[in-house]
Amino acid sequence: MTKMNRAVVITEALSLLDEVGLDAVSTRRLAKRLNVEQPSLYWYFRTKKDLLAAMAEAAMEPHATAPLPSPGDDWRDWFADNTRSFRRTLLMRRDGARLHAGTTPTGDLARLRRKMEFLVASGVPERDAQMAMLAAGRFTVGSVLEEQADPGPGDDADLPADMPVIDHESAFEAGLALILNGLVHRTAM
């Protein structure tokens, strides 16, 4: 039996998420997976909501450790790359967007401040930088929610024959370009 600690519980919970999906993740299932009694999980997480928040934070680790912008970076390239990194991270986990939706980046506040300071130092008005980061984040979560909910090829028998096949990557890039172009326009004013 693996020695149980907070990190082990989170790791196993994320593995369970990948296997069964968010709707089927439960403390009962997790306890069984860990070969412990369900109440022992409360030593680490008082509620399922606390567990889900810890899982969301851990799932975002690849994005949270991505390089921060440097003063010489082009803010437009950085903004697009940062948003793409967020998308890739959400896609790493089954139901990654649903897990992340509604969470607050409490562990990432210093990094978020650095990102905002970079945009402002690059000439983006502070309020526009805030709104663009928020809009890009919400757009990305929504895009990934739709992508992860897509049944995929072969499961679309109920769709009209003339319905175009959705290319999630192209749709994401088009939406990101619209957000970025809008921000460039606002910055040029």
From TrEMBL:
Residues 3-63 form the HTH tetR-type domain. Gene3D superfamilies: Homeodomain-like (1.10.10.60), Tetracycline Repressor, domain 2 (1.10.357.10). It holds the Pfam family TetR_C_1. Residues 26-45 bind DNA. Keywords: DNA-binding, Repressor, Transcription, Transcription regulation. It comes from the Bacteria. SUPFAM superfamilies: Homeodomain-like (SSF46689), Tetracyclin repressor-like, C-terminal domain (SSF48498). This is TetR/AcrR family transcriptional regulator C-terminal domain-containing protein. It comes from Streptomyces graminearus.
